[in-house]
Write a structure and sequence with these properties.
It is built from 10 helices and 6 strands. Helix 5 crosses helix 7. Helix content is 50%, strand content 14%. By secondary structure, it is of the alpha+beta class. The chain folds into 2 domains: 77 residues, Arc Repressor Mutant, subunit A (Orthogonal Bundle); 77 residues, Winged helix-like DNA-binding domain superfamily/Winged helix DNA-binding domain (Arc Repressor Mutant, subunit A), CATH 1.10.10.
Length: 194
């Protein structure tokens, strides 16, 4: 099959989906390898960029999605009468950062780090589609664990969690801090117990 045919098929699948489509699913649909899918998607991205198209192809970890270009947000908003979501609060950004850098994590871990109840903030982030439940831990009470979503990646313009900026390095702990118990994610605690 010609490269142009693969480009057209990939574009059709991505357009029809409306959601991120995994590289493996595209490979299956186009009956090509995942490496070929990656080349096809890179070619599509370059074509959209070269002609300054109103749409663009974004990579979200191992998935791809067609989106409208941010330059044309005003026109899209006007046409679809989109209402702006309320901006994230400082608490929401803090919780989102804790989840993004430590995921999957429990609500108890988030509250341990922040020192306050985070139920409302976690629920709000789930409602906005930035965070989702990723399952339950095999610990007493089987607590829920949370992680970020593809919407999180898209909203913060990163293709994968590895693209997040590194956390600042902490200075050497003082003698007083050495005596205090450090925060440990329940997941890493469970792994150490095995």
């Amino acid at each position: 099959m010609a490269d142009n045919e693969w480009l057209a098929q990939a574009e059709a699948v991505l357009f029809a989906s409306g959601e991120p489509v995994s590289r493996s699913r595209l490979a299956q649909a186009l009956e090509i390898t995942e490496a070929e899918v990656e080349k096809v998607c890179q070619t599509l991205q370059k074509e959209y960029d070269a002609r300054k198209s109103g749409i663009m192809l974004v990579a979200l970890e191992d998935k791809y999605q067609l989106c409208s270009r941010p330059d044309y947000f005003a026109a899209v908003k006007k046409a679809l009468d989109l209402r702006r979501n309320t901006p994230l609060s400082q608490a929401a950004f803090e919780v989102l950062a804790i989840i993004a850098y430590n995921q999957p994590v429990t609500k108890a871990f988030i509250e341990q780090v922040r020192g306050v109840d985070c139920s409302g903030v976690v629920a709000s982030l789930c409602e906005k589609g930035l965070v989702t439940e990723k399952g339950r831990l095999e610990l007493p009470g089987r607590p829920l664990v949370y992680g970020t979503t593809d919407d999180f990646l898209r909203c913060f313009s990163v293709t994968s969690l590895e693209d997040l900026p590194p956390l600042p390095q902490r200075e050497e702990p003082t003698e007083e801090e050495n005596g205090q118990q450090r925060l440990v994610s329940p997941l890493s605690a469970g792994k150490n117990a095995e």
